[in-house]
Amino acid sequence: MANTTGIKQKELFGHPVGLYVLFFTEMWERFSYYGMRAILVLYLVAQAQGENPGLGWSNGEALALYGWYTMLVYVASIPGGWIADKFLGQKKSVLYGGILLVAGHTILAIEEMWAFYSGLGLIIAGVGMLKPNISTMVGGLYKQGDIRRDKGFTIFYIGINVGAFLSSLIVGYVGEVHGWHYGFGLAGIGMALGLIQYLIGQKHLKYVGNFTGDSENEEEKAAMKRPLTKIEKDRVVVLFISFLLVIVFWGSFEQAGGLMNIYAKENTNRMLMGWEVPATWFQSLNAMFIIFLGTSVAAFWARRKLKGKISTSLFKMIVGLIIMGTGFFFMSAASAQFESTGSSAMYWLVLAYLFHTVGELCISPVALSYITKLAPLKYASLMMGVYFAMTGFGNKLAGLLGEASESLGEFAIFTGIAIFCVSFGALVMVFRNKLEKLTHGAEDNEREMLEQEPYELADPEIN
Q1: 138, 151, 219, 319: which one has the fewest Cβ atoms less than 10 Å from its Cβ?
Q2: DSSP assignment letter at 110
Q3: Where in the cell is it found (predicted)?
């Protein structure tokens, strides 16, 4: 990452102010993305005639498009990261990505098929430019070995989910009740707010996200020109192996926007005290749990590290996959209940989303931080882009699994996902020690700083 050693940054609540600028930028970007995601599949399968007409597609057709779209959104992060590393820097790439996103969501508000596909294309390009680069900028706010980095990414991740929580409630409600295209337009307004906030906060991002080709730091210039060292190559290998966990995780987790979304709509008894809960509101559960549990999960891992227990990034990611996979057993129970009674209770979905959330908190913000620790400087944004591309492949896998449910049934899909995730996580755990040796002590400085200066963790949730 960029060398911020010796640079005095203005701080707020123990972290650089720039973190909160990026927090709110990402919050509004996720508001727009998850808001649109919450209504996309439901819009596609809604009847073409009626008070709130959709496109009248079959569930299989809708889930197929959902899989392709969510895959391409994240695969676009590879060219987005490459452009930042080679030409623009992360800061400008985030700006241009935000502009593309505003345009894409605004066009989706037009009730024409050309606008629908054009809007999706612009959103794909916009997320590709913004997503990997804003995450890389968060890592750049902290010097190497700074023990606040993981906590910083957790705070940033809470911002992501504040946006996701609000969007599922607001955009989901507007889309379902007042019109799908009003929902799409509202998502665009959210992204515009994020872009304005990002521009206003530039003074707090002066030393991060700049194009390294223009750097005056001799160490950074040398790192950009020389070939990768043996240590750097080993660390890249570990990153690529950890990305297998990412694919499996998101291939399972992203049933939320597809199969679990449709399941909530069609198979779940959503009556609560005489009122029917909108299906899209279940999308907000994950984000709500992250907001309430985010710092607690981070504090749990910090306490483990202080006690000398295993708390490496790879260990957290493996545990996260296993916990998330366990959550699908609740969906198996829901499917069994539906098959026997013709309806399933809402609490199965709530429990599934709770386990999925705890698993996500163990793997997703940790993986973002892990990449900024291990990725070579010259490929910092590109490696972040590859991570999000793996997320995209996971999304495509989720779509394929959702399609398979039409022939195999929900019970088989949910149970199969649960068993595979737990088994795959256990398998990687067997090889964890060998893989961590290839990091060449990338996280050792954090352990030493915790042992020497634990008082720096002023967060009462951690101490």
Answers
A1: 219
A2: S
A3: Cell membrane; Membrane
Could you tell me the CA-to-CA distances from 66 to 86, 104, 193 in Å, in that order? 31, 16, 26
Picking from 214, 169, 171, the residue whose alpha carbon sits closest to that of residue 190 is: 171
Alpha carbon 303 to chain centroid distance? 25
For residue 119, the one-letter residue type is G
For the chain, what is the radius of gyration of the CA atoms? 22
**Separation CA 179–CA 184 (nearest Å):** 9
Total residues belonging to the chain? 463
Helix (H, G, I), strand (E, B) or coil at 46: coil
Q: pLDDT tens across 352-404, in order?
A: 999 999 999 999 888 988 988 898 878 888 888 888 888 888 878 887 888 88
Encoded tokens for 222 = 């040398």
Amino acid in the structure at residue 350: V
Farthest-apart Cα atoms in the chain, separation: 69
- 260/397 Cα distance (integer angstroms): 14
Specify whether the CB–CB gap between 211 and 394 falls below 8 A. Answer: no
227, amino acid identity: P
Residue 183 to residue 32: CA distance in whole angstroms: 10
Spatial separation of the C-alpha atoms in residues 140 and 49, rounded to whole Å: 51
Report yes or no: 439 and 234 within 8 Å, Cβ to Cβ: yes
Is there a contact between 91 and 205 (Cβ–Cβ < 8 Å)? yes
Place of tokens 């505003």: 102
Residue 373 tokens, joined = 């620790």
| Cβ proximity of 359 and 327 under 8 Å | yes
Neighbours of 418 (CB within 10 A): 22
- Say how many C-beta atoms besides its own lie within 10 A of residue 201's C-beta: 17
φ, ψ of residue 212 to 5 degrees: the values are -65, -20
Instruction: Fill in the DSSP letter of residue 210.
Output: -
Report how far Cα 151 is from the mean position of its chain's Cα atoms.
16
3-class DSSP assignment, residue 457 = coil
Please enumerate in sequence order all residues whose Cβ is within 8 A of that of 370, keeping only pairs 6 or more positions apart, or say none: 239, 242, 313, 314, 317
**CB-CB contact of 461 with 299 (8 Å):** yes
Read off the pLDDT of residues 68-108 as tens digits, 9 standing for 90 and up.
888 888 889 889 988 988 888 899 999 999 999 999 988 98
Cβ count near 74 (within 10 Å): 26
